[in-house]
Design brief:
It comes from Dyadobacter helix. By secondary structure, this protein is an alpha/beta fold. About 35% of the residues lie in helices and about 15% in strands. The protein folds into two domains: about 180 residues, Rossmann fold, CATH 3.40.50.720; about 170 residues, NAD(P)-binding Rossmann-like Domain (Rossmann fold, 3-Layer(aba) Sandwich), CATH 3.40.50.720. α5 links the parallel β5 and β6. It is globular.
Length: about 375
């Protein structure tokens, strides 16, 4: 198969979808890989490393899209890429369709095969291609939250871990999944008082067992959230409904219950956000304020630590990408239920229910497309 790796062009996105090590593996399987020049530069990989591994370097993104049967990316295509996508071309990347109707409509119109990292799902309901970036984003959420709690950054002016004789900050983590678990570990490690809220009592029992003494757990409901936010300094939103729009757990009217300078980090922003007042921001312009509350809603948080993120992501994606290249998308998805669940839009048809529900568009059963 002919594989294309374009340079990511989303704001401050420095990750790359395939490393030189990945190129070597594709070449061992007999595939041809074209990489756009400087695609790996932000992650610390040079064009010469790619060519030594067996890739062919192309100078423009247009050339990469034009020649490739499968495009492997990190982030969803942006508007300037839409017209480069060919009918029947396979795109393997993060899409998060439920947060963007224009992207959804564009991919329907292009009649491409859109296989989304975030909905590839194992039999145990885990999301193997979302987990590594959720780990990075969960840990980063605490770093960023601690920074924006500083007074010059607009925050309340509290040190997350406090000092002798001064109480630490209170951190509320919404969601006890991968993001929430990593965020709680980081915040607890810095000495904050942490509360994890989740609707799954079994998950809370597990977290209660493994977390240090400065982490508490509570059932997530509106009453408890309204009560907790009155004394919380940092709120991290990490709820996820795979492939669907995230629920709004904190509404606009709740902001008035918070202390001025409270910071909210919405890690669920790729799926529409779990705060009603959230809208996507960039690394270049990461925050805004609503009713005295600082919102950090960067949609590609792991892009700020591209070396770590690229290696973590490609460790997970490469086996699936090789399967797609070796068998073609149809045979690969027919033989692998995990990959089949990654199909979101195929030749103009929405085949993932969460996407059709998000925009009230027609749904086609995925099994009918083979």
């Amino acid at each position: 198969m002919i594989i294309g790796v374009p340079k990511e062009i989303k704001n401050n996105e420095n990750r790359v979808a395939v490393t030189p090590a990945g190129i070597t593996e594709f070449r061992k399987h007999g595939h041809t890989v074209y990489v756009q020049t400087d695609a790996g530069k932000g992650s610390g990989f040079t064009d010469s490393q790619y060519t030594e591994a067996g890739a062919i370097i192309l100078s423009s993104i247009e050339e990469v899209y034009a020649i490739a049967e499968m495009i492997i990316k990190v982030k969803e295509p942006i508007a300037s890429e839409y017209n480069l996508i060919k009918e029947n071309q396979l795109l393997f990347t993060y899409f998060h369709f439920a947060s963007s109707e224009p992207l959804t409509q564009a991919m329907i119109a292009r009649k491409a095969i859109c296989l989304a990292y975030e909905t590839v799902e194992k039999s145990d309901r885990s999301l193997p291609l979302l987990i590594p970036m959720s780990e990075v984003a969960g840990r980063m959420a605490v770093q960023e939250g601690a920074k924006y709690l500083e007074k010059p950054m607009g925050g309340f002016g509290i040190l997350l871990g406090g000092v002798a004789g001064v109480k630490p900050a209170n951190v509320l983590v919404l969601g006890g999944g991968i993001v929430g678990t990593q965020a709680a570990k980081m915040a607890a490690g810095l000495g904050a008082n942490v509360t994890i809220a989740d609707i799954n009592l079994q998950r809370l029992r597990y977290l209660e067992d493994i977390m240090p003494a400065n982490v508490d757990t509570v059932i997530s409901n509106e009453y408890n959230i309204r009560d907790l936010i009155k004394s919380t300094n940092l709120i991290i939103g990490g709820v996820l409904i795979p492939g669907a729009k995230a629920p709004s757990l904190i509404t606009r009217d709740m902001l008035k219950l918070m202390k001025p300078g409270t910071v909210m980090v919405d890690v669920a922003i790729d799926q529409g956000g779990c705060f009603e007042t959230s809208h996507a921001t960039t690394h270049e312009d990461p925050i805004y304020e609503v009713d005295g509350v600082v919102h950090y809603c960067v949609a590609n948080m792991p892009g700020a630590v591209p070396y770590t993120s690229t290696l973590a992501l490609t460790n997970a994606t490469l086996p699936y990408a090789l399967l797609l290249a070796d068998k073609g998308w149809q045979a690969a998805c027919q033989s692998n239920e995990e990959l089949k669940k990654g199909l979101n839009i195929v030749k103009g048809n929405i085949v993932f229910k969460g996407v059709s529900d998000a925009w009230k568009l027609p749904y086609t059963d995925v099994n009918s497309i083979f």
